[in-house]
From TrEMBL:
<dbReference type="InterPro" id="IPR000049">
    <property type="entry name" value="ET-Flavoprotein_bsu_CS"/>
</dbReference>
<dbReference type="InterPro" id="IPR012255">
    <property type="entry name" value="ETF_b"/>
</dbReference>
<dbReference type="InterPro" id="IPR033948">
    <property type="entry name" value="ETF_beta_N"/>
</dbReference>
<protein>
    <recommendedName>
        <fullName>Electron transfer flavoprotein small subunit</fullName>
    </recommendedName>
</protein>
<dbReference type="InterPro" id="IPR014730">
    <property type="entry name" value="ETF_a/b_N"/>
</dbReference>
<dbReference type="Pfam" id="PF01012">
    <property type="entry name" value="ETF"/>
</dbReference>
<feature type="domain" description="Electron transfer flavoprotein alpha/beta-subunit N-terminal">
    <location>
        <begin position="23"/>
        <end position="220"/>
    </location>
</feature>
<dbReference type="InterPro" id="IPR014729">
    <property type="entry name" value="Rossmann-like_a/b/a_fold"/>
</dbReference>
<comment type="similarity">
    <text>Belongs to the ETF beta-subunit/FixA family.</text>
</comment>
<dbReference type="GO" id="GO:0009055">
    <property type="term" value="F:electron transfer activity"/>
</dbReference>
Amino acid sequence: MLHIVVCIKQVPDSREIRIDPVTNTLIRQGVPSIVNFYDLHGLEEALRIKDELGARVTVVTMGPPPAEKSLKECISLGADEAVLITDRKFAGADTLATSYVLAKTLEKVADEWGAIDMVFCGKQTLDGDTGQVGPGIACRLDLEQLTYVGKVIHVDPEKRRVRVERKLEDGVEVVETSFPVLITALKELNKVRRAPMPGMIRAARFKPVVWTTNDFPDIEISKIGLKGSPTIVSKTWVPEVRKVNGEKISGEALEQIAEQLMEKLWGSELAQKLGWA
Protein backbone atom coordinates (compact mmCIF):
# COMPACT_ATOMS: atom_id res chain seq x y z
CA MET A 1 0.00 0.00 0.00
CA LEU A 2 1.21 3.51 -0.86
CA HIS A 3 2.19 5.83 1.95
CA ILE A 4 1.42 9.46 1.15
CA VAL A 5 2.35 12.38 3.42
CA VAL A 6 0.72 15.79 3.09
CA CYS A 7 2.41 18.86 4.61
CA ILE A 8 -0.06 21.56 5.63
CA LYS A 9 0.10 24.90 7.41
CA GLN A 10 -2.44 26.80 9.47
CA VAL A 11 -2.44 30.40 8.23
CA PRO A 12 -4.40 33.59 8.94
CA ASP A 13 -7.45 34.01 6.73
CA SER A 14 -6.11 36.27 3.96
CA ARG A 15 -9.50 38.00 3.66
CA GLU A 16 -9.07 39.43 7.16
CA ILE A 17 -5.31 40.03 7.38
CA ARG A 18 -4.33 43.46 8.69
CA ILE A 19 -0.94 45.07 9.31
CA ASP A 20 -0.06 47.16 12.35
CA PRO A 21 0.95 50.59 10.96
CA VAL A 22 3.35 51.17 13.89
CA THR A 23 5.21 47.85 14.02
CA ASN A 24 4.66 46.86 10.36
CA THR A 25 3.80 43.31 11.48
CA LEU A 26 0.75 41.12 10.88
CA ILE A 27 -2.07 41.54 13.38
CA ARG A 28 -3.00 37.95 14.22
CA GLN A 29 -5.18 38.62 17.24
CA GLY A 30 -8.82 38.22 16.33
CA VAL A 31 -8.00 36.94 12.83
CA PRO A 32 -9.40 33.44 12.17
CA SER A 33 -7.01 30.71 11.07
CA ILE A 34 -7.60 28.32 8.17
CA VAL A 35 -5.76 25.52 6.41
CA ASN A 36 -3.66 26.98 3.62
CA PHE A 37 -5.91 26.28 0.63
CA TYR A 38 -3.10 25.15 -1.70
CA ASP A 39 -2.31 22.48 0.91
CA LEU A 40 -5.95 21.38 0.86
CA HIS A 41 -5.63 20.71 -2.87
CA GLY A 42 -2.57 18.57 -2.13
CA LEU A 43 -4.57 16.67 0.49
CA GLU A 44 -7.47 16.19 -1.90
CA GLU A 45 -5.18 14.65 -4.51
CA ALA A 46 -3.71 12.30 -1.92
CA LEU A 47 -7.22 11.25 -0.91
CA ARG A 48 -8.19 10.66 -4.55
CA ILE A 49 -5.20 8.37 -4.96
CA LYS A 50 -6.23 6.62 -1.74
CA ASP A 51 -9.79 6.14 -3.04
CA GLU A 52 -8.60 4.74 -6.38
CA LEU A 53 -5.51 2.72 -5.49
CA GLY A 54 -5.48 2.37 -1.73
CA ALA A 55 -3.04 4.35 0.39
CA ARG A 56 -2.25 5.51 3.89
CA VAL A 57 -2.44 9.31 4.15
CA THR A 58 -0.52 11.03 6.93
CA VAL A 59 -0.82 14.79 7.47
CA VAL A 60 1.89 16.80 9.23
CA THR A 61 2.17 20.41 10.30
CA MET A 62 4.58 22.53 12.31
CA GLY A 63 2.94 25.20 14.43
CA PRO A 64 1.53 26.23 17.81
CA PRO A 65 -0.89 23.93 19.68
CA PRO A 66 -4.02 25.56 18.12
CA ALA A 67 -2.86 24.13 14.75
CA GLU A 68 -4.47 20.89 15.98
CA LYS A 69 -7.74 22.31 14.63
CA SER A 70 -6.39 22.28 11.07
CA LEU A 71 -5.19 18.69 11.46
CA LYS A 72 -8.65 17.67 12.63
CA GLU A 73 -10.13 19.25 9.50
CA CYS A 74 -7.81 17.08 7.40
CA ILE A 75 -8.88 14.00 9.37
CA SER A 76 -12.53 14.87 8.71
CA LEU A 77 -11.81 14.89 4.99
CA GLY A 78 -10.29 11.39 5.09
CA ALA A 79 -6.67 11.48 6.25
CA ASP A 80 -5.62 8.47 8.35
CA GLU A 81 -3.06 9.99 10.73
CA ALA A 82 -1.93 13.46 11.74
CA VAL A 83 1.22 14.76 13.39
CA LEU A 84 1.68 18.14 15.09
CA ILE A 85 5.26 19.34 15.52
CA THR A 86 5.14 22.02 18.17
CA ASP A 87 7.70 23.58 20.48
CA ARG A 88 8.59 27.16 21.39
CA LYS A 89 12.08 26.43 20.04
CA PHE A 90 10.55 26.11 16.55
CA ALA A 91 9.01 29.62 16.74
CA GLY A 92 10.15 32.28 14.28
CA ALA A 93 11.30 29.77 11.67
CA ASP A 94 11.79 30.96 8.10
CA THR A 95 11.55 28.63 5.09
CA LEU A 96 15.07 27.25 5.63
CA ALA A 97 14.43 26.25 9.24
CA THR A 98 10.90 25.05 8.45
CA SER A 99 12.05 22.75 5.66
CA TYR A 100 14.73 21.35 7.99
CA VAL A 101 12.22 20.48 10.72
CA LEU A 102 9.70 19.05 8.26
CA ALA A 103 12.39 16.91 6.62
CA LYS A 104 13.33 15.53 10.04
CA THR A 105 9.63 14.91 10.67
CA LEU A 106 9.18 12.94 7.44
CA GLU A 107 12.15 10.77 8.36
CA LYS A 108 10.50 10.02 11.71
CA VAL A 109 7.11 9.42 10.05
CA ALA A 110 8.78 6.87 7.75
CA ASP A 111 10.30 5.13 10.77
CA GLU A 112 6.93 5.03 12.56
CA TRP A 113 4.56 4.09 9.72
CA GLY A 114 6.67 2.89 6.82
CA ALA A 115 8.58 4.29 3.86
CA ILE A 116 7.03 7.31 2.15
CA ASP A 117 6.19 7.08 -1.54
CA MET A 118 4.69 10.52 -2.22
CA VAL A 119 4.70 13.88 -0.45
CA PHE A 120 2.20 16.64 -1.29
CA CYS A 121 2.65 20.31 -0.39
CA GLY A 122 0.82 23.40 -1.56
CA LYS A 123 2.73 25.47 -4.10
CA GLN A 124 3.01 28.24 -1.46
CA THR A 125 1.35 29.54 1.70
CA LEU A 126 -0.96 32.52 1.98
CA ASP A 127 1.14 34.21 4.67
CA GLY A 128 4.73 33.58 3.50
CA ASP A 129 3.96 33.31 -0.22
CA THR A 130 7.49 32.09 -1.06
CA GLY A 131 6.96 28.61 -2.50
CA GLN A 132 10.27 27.47 -0.97
CA VAL A 133 9.34 24.94 1.72
CA GLY A 134 8.27 22.08 -0.57
CA PRO A 135 11.40 22.18 -2.74
CA GLY A 136 13.48 22.64 0.43
CA ILE A 137 12.11 19.39 1.87
CA ALA A 138 12.77 17.58 -1.41
CA CYS A 139 16.37 18.77 -1.53
CA ARG A 140 17.05 17.77 2.08
CA LEU A 141 15.60 14.28 1.59
CA ASP A 142 16.90 13.81 -1.97
CA LEU A 143 13.38 13.34 -3.36
CA GLU A 144 12.31 13.77 -6.97
CA GLN A 145 10.30 16.99 -7.10
CA LEU A 146 7.47 18.09 -9.37
CA THR A 147 6.44 21.68 -8.72
CA TYR A 148 3.38 23.68 -9.88
CA VAL A 149 1.38 20.55 -10.69
CA GLY A 150 -2.06 21.23 -12.15
CA LYS A 151 -3.00 17.62 -12.94
CA VAL A 152 -1.93 14.15 -11.85
CA ILE A 153 -2.36 12.07 -14.99
CA HIS A 154 -1.42 8.62 -13.77
CA VAL A 155 -0.02 6.90 -10.68
CA ASP A 156 1.44 3.41 -11.11
CA PRO A 157 2.12 1.83 -7.69
CA GLU A 158 3.62 -1.33 -9.24
CA LYS A 159 6.17 0.51 -11.36
CA ARG A 160 6.40 3.19 -8.65
CA ARG A 161 5.99 6.04 -11.10
CA VAL A 162 3.79 9.09 -11.50
CA ARG A 163 2.97 11.27 -14.54
CA VAL A 164 1.75 14.86 -14.12
CA GLU A 165 1.11 18.12 -15.90
CA ARG A 166 3.18 21.07 -14.67
CA LYS A 167 2.02 24.61 -15.33
CA LEU A 168 4.84 26.78 -16.67
CA GLU A 169 4.93 30.43 -17.69
CA ASP A 170 4.92 29.56 -21.38
CA GLY A 171 2.71 26.45 -21.39
CA VAL A 172 2.16 23.04 -19.86
CA GLU A 173 4.80 20.34 -19.39
CA VAL A 174 3.99 16.64 -19.10
CA VAL A 175 6.63 14.87 -17.03
CA GLU A 176 7.01 11.45 -15.42
CA THR A 177 9.26 10.40 -12.57
CA SER A 178 9.73 7.68 -9.98
CA PHE A 179 8.95 7.39 -6.26
CA PRO A 180 9.72 8.77 -3.76
CA VAL A 181 8.51 12.11 -5.09
CA LEU A 182 7.40 15.46 -3.72
CA ILE A 183 4.62 17.33 -5.55
CA THR A 184 3.56 20.95 -4.99
CA ALA A 185 -0.10 21.52 -5.81
CA LEU A 186 -1.87 24.28 -7.69
CA LYS A 187 -5.53 25.09 -7.03
CA GLU A 188 -6.34 23.85 -10.55
CA LEU A 189 -5.31 20.35 -9.49
CA ASN A 190 -8.78 19.42 -8.22
CA LYS A 191 -11.86 20.50 -6.32
CA VAL A 192 -11.63 19.92 -2.58
CA ARG A 193 -14.35 17.63 -1.21
CA ARG A 194 -16.67 18.36 1.69
CA ALA A 195 -16.21 16.43 4.90
CA PRO A 196 -18.80 13.65 5.34
CA MET A 197 -20.62 13.28 8.67
CA PRO A 198 -18.66 10.14 9.71
CA GLY A 199 -15.44 12.01 9.01
CA MET A 200 -16.51 14.97 11.16
CA ILE A 201 -17.45 12.64 14.01
CA ARG A 202 -14.05 10.90 13.79
CA ALA A 203 -12.26 14.26 13.68
CA ALA A 204 -14.08 15.50 16.79
CA ARG A 205 -12.69 12.56 18.77
CA PHE A 206 -9.28 12.49 17.09
CA LYS A 207 -6.07 13.39 18.91
CA PRO A 208 -3.04 13.97 16.68
CA VAL A 209 0.42 12.68 17.49
CA VAL A 210 2.40 15.53 19.06
CA TRP A 211 6.18 15.75 18.69
CA THR A 212 8.50 18.31 20.29
CA THR A 213 12.25 18.82 20.11
CA ASN A 214 12.57 16.03 22.70
CA ASP A 215 11.30 13.56 20.09
CA PHE A 216 14.17 14.46 17.72
CA PRO A 217 17.38 13.52 19.58
CA ASP A 218 19.58 14.24 16.57
CA ILE A 219 18.07 17.61 15.66
CA GLU A 220 20.50 20.55 15.54
CA ILE A 221 19.12 23.39 17.66
CA SER A 222 21.17 25.90 15.69
CA LYS A 223 19.12 25.05 12.58
CA ILE A 224 15.63 25.59 14.01
CA GLY A 225 13.53 28.59 15.01
CA LEU A 226 15.04 32.06 14.93
CA LYS A 227 18.57 30.72 15.37
CA GLY A 228 18.29 28.72 12.16
CA SER A 229 16.55 31.46 10.18
CA PRO A 230 18.85 33.81 8.25
CA THR A 231 15.91 35.59 6.60
CA ILE A 232 15.27 39.11 7.87
CA VAL A 233 12.05 40.99 7.06
CA SER A 234 13.12 44.63 7.15
CA LYS A 235 9.73 46.15 6.40
CA THR A 236 6.14 45.39 5.51
CA TRP A 237 3.47 47.87 4.52
CA VAL A 238 -0.07 48.22 3.25
CA PRO A 239 -0.47 49.83 -0.20
CA GLU A 240 -2.02 53.28 -0.02
CA VAL A 241 -5.72 53.42 -0.76
CA ARG A 242 -6.33 55.26 -4.01
CA LYS A 243 -9.48 57.29 -4.37
CA VAL A 244 -11.25 56.87 -7.69
CA ASN A 245 -14.02 59.22 -8.76
CA GLY A 246 -17.15 57.46 -9.87
CA GLU A 247 -20.51 58.34 -11.26
CA LYS A 248 -23.77 56.47 -10.92
CA ILE A 249 -25.90 56.01 -14.00
CA SER A 250 -29.58 55.40 -13.37
CA GLY A 251 -32.71 55.07 -15.45
CA GLU A 252 -36.04 53.30 -15.66
CA ALA A 253 -35.13 51.04 -18.57
CA LEU A 254 -31.98 49.09 -19.42
CA GLU A 255 -31.90 50.67 -22.87
CA GLN A 256 -31.87 54.13 -21.32
CA ILE A 257 -29.03 53.20 -18.94
CA ALA A 258 -27.04 51.63 -21.82
CA GLU A 259 -27.47 54.76 -23.93
CA GLN A 260 -26.19 56.98 -21.12
CA LEU A 261 -23.23 54.66 -20.57
CA MET A 262 -22.24 54.73 -24.25
CA GLU A 263 -22.42 58.52 -24.28
CA LYS A 264 -20.10 58.66 -21.27
CA LEU A 265 -17.64 56.18 -22.77
CA TRP A 266 -17.48 57.78 -26.22
CA GLY A 267 -16.97 61.21 -24.72
CA SER A 268 -14.36 60.15 -22.19
CA GLU A 269 -10.69 61.10 -22.18
CA LEU A 270 -9.74 57.43 -22.62
CA ALA A 271 -11.88 57.12 -25.75
CA GLN A 272 -10.16 60.16 -27.22
CA LYS A 273 -6.72 58.71 -26.49
CA LEU A 274 -7.67 55.44 -28.16
CA GLY A 275 -9.12 57.27 -31.16
CA TRP A 276 -12.66 56.04 -30.53
CA ALA A 277 -14.21 59.51 -30.20
